[in-house]
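#structure-requests
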Amino acid sequence: MRKRITLFLTMLLLVVAASAKKGPKYVFYFIGDGMGTNQVMGVQYYLQDIEGKYGFKPLCFTQFPYAGLVVTHSANSDVTDSAAAGTALASGQKTDNNVLGLLPDKETPVETIAEMAHKKGVRVAIGTSCSVDHATPGSFYGHRPHRNQYHQIGAQLAESGFEFFGGSQFRAPDSRDNSDEGNYAQAEKAGYTVVRGYDEYKEKAASTDKIILFDKEPKSDNALAYAIDRKEGDLSLAQVTEAAIDYMMKDPKKGFFMMMEGGRIDNACHANDPGTYIQEMLDFDEAIKVAYEFYLKHKKETLIVITADHETGGLGLTAGEYRTNLKVLQYQKMSKDAFTAHLEKMGREIGDILTWEEVEQELKENFGFWDKIELTDKQTASLKSAYVETFGMGPGALEEGEYFKVDKMSDEAARVMTQVAEISWAAGCHSGSFVPVFAIGAGAEQFTGQMNNTEIPMKIKKLAKY
């Protein structure tokens, strides 16, 4: 009898051990570009504030059972850029700022977990709300000495052989000297079918072996529309995620590795655009909900990890007093970029310089000023001053930033909105702050405590046995 019990226990332990060794078959890796801890906390305060309550209302991913803090420095700076951070999150190797998929010597390639997974026969999907050759998505398949070599990175996309890509478009599809046929031709030659918009994806997905899902209408800023500006037919990150899951499950036996980037959180924070950042965070959470629904059907085989490459903007959840007023951000109806384009279009249509009364009405409708949000005399005066600078002597000169272009009127509108929300921005660039990591599913308990960003892909690699 004792021998039977011992044999049974031994067999049970072997089954448990084998199950533990199996690891996740389906891996979701979400990267909120620019998403620091305050970006996460701020949107949770906002959700509670619009209900007229103090405290916070959790997002889907902040309710995941395991969480930690991530250090983001690059090999040559405490403040990383997206290429170095993306390389660390993709490969577990630190590199210098602006270097993509190479060691700091700018020559030695690093192998990414997406490439490792693909070598093992796992299906791979890479998606983003920016261009597919941008720093974060590019770091999972690209290897270039500088992140701005978009055309060469686009060529490496075709060479990767990954089954699915999704995003806005190629940023630089044609070579400057016409030395090759271009990124679209390279992709098609490598067996990719390029589709425009979610509807065309659904029409053609079943008959393809590899696919690239692009936005229906290319945007001038080489990204998907901000969530706050999205119009019918515009592609969303949630749709990219839905399409990627659908495409990966054409062959479920192989399993999949999927990286999805909420890239426009970073853009909004670079621009210090408060209402736009809030909507991008909510949009990122919507994409994660798609993966979470998949997890609920495949709990034992799925791992979801959410993190960020760095914090952007030095967001402060105070303006110097012991309070915030985040609920006012619900009245912002356009991004700074869209408001600039809107005012320019109005001017072209009337064929004249806009009057203050016309601009004032647009500020009421699109930011809620004076109508839903009470402004001080000083804030009203600053908006009038910006109007004079922008329109008083003719069309104003545009201020340019890394990812945005706004006139002085739009910039001042966002600055006043930041003031009335009683939050603050320290800069228009990245910071060296902690970023969060959240996880759920098979092996999720590994993602707790303080860790370096290079540890995250190594944990995924070990768990999924890439």
